[in-house]
Amino acid sequence: MKIYNFSEYSSLYNKFLSELRDAQIQKDSMRFRKNLERLGQISAYEISKSLDNYTLSTNTPLGISTTKVPLENIVLATILRAGLPLHNGLLNYFDSAENCFISAFRKHTSSNDFDVEIEYLASPKLDGKVVLLSDTMLASGQSMVLAYKALLEKGNPSEIHLVSVIGSQQGIDFVTQNFPENTTLWIGGIDPKMTTQSYIVPGLGDAGDLAFGEKDDE
């Protein structure tokens, strides 16, 4: 699996990521969502450079222009709910893509232990298509792997691109072991460890709660 780590390069991506991590700035949930959307847009632009392309002819008022553009066989898949703003950013640029939505949740067996379960999947056929699977946080990697296995019920993609903002090293290792070779991971930063509750450290907290408000777990 190829890994593109945005933090290894100087760009606006890192500025928006630092704001996401900032405990003071992230109190503004609207700005938090906007920054996730921006990171999705930047990710889409970088991913587009790696995709197969074709020559598009355009009639201008004075003649014909030819341009190389990515092939339009893309499906944007995201894991609810934290992945939605990131997904919207990807969709802003890949605006003719098909879409897929997956719900994954932690079913706790104790205060520190849980199983990840897939509850809902809405997807087009995936055979021969390029799938961009996004989730804001790549903690243990279980959600990504289970989402991918669920997607295979809809067909075999020609390429897989995983899009995350922050991942733990443990999560990176897990997805590397469980995804095929035709997978590329696009990630903003890789953090060294997780808490016993599988929250990334230093991370940024609970991305879903920061984007949409705290949920009631009772």
What does it look like?
Strands 1, 4, 5, 6, 7, 8, 9 and 10 form an eight-stranded mixed β-sheet that branches. A two-stranded antiparallel ribbon has the order 2-3. Strands 11-12 form a two-stranded antiparallel sheet. It has helices spanning 12-21, 29-48, 84-93, 142-151, 169-178, 207-212, and strands at residues 2-5, 53-60, 63-70, 74-80, 98-108, 114-122, 130-134, 137-138, 159-168, 183-191, 193-194, 200-201. The protein has a single domain (2-212), classed as Rossmann fold. Helix 1 (12-21) runs antiparallel to helix 2 (29-48). The longest helix has 20 residues, at 29-48. By secondary structure, the chain is an alpha/beta fold. The protein starts with a strand and ends in a 6-residue tail after the last helix. 30% of the residues lie in helices and 35% in strands. The protein is globular. The protein contains six helices and twelve strands. Strand 8, helix 4 and strand 9 (159-168) form a beta-alpha-beta unit.
Quickly count the domains.
1
What do we call the CATH topology?
Answer: Rossmann fold
The CATH architecture assignment turns out to be 3-Layer(aba) Sandwich
- Helix and strand run: EHHEEEHEEEEHEHEEEH
Helix count from the secondary structure assignment: 6
Distance between the termini: 39 Å
Instruction: Summarize model confidence as the mean pLDDT.
Output: 93
> How would you describe the shape?
globular
Supply Rg.
18 Å
Describe the sheet with the most strands. Answer: 8 strands, mixed
Uncertain segments of ≥5 residues (pLDDT<50)? none
Indicate the proportion of strand residues. Answer: 35-45%
CATH class group: Alpha Beta
Number of strands: 12
User: Which structural category fits the helices and strands?
Assistant: alpha/beta
Residues in helix, %: 25-40%
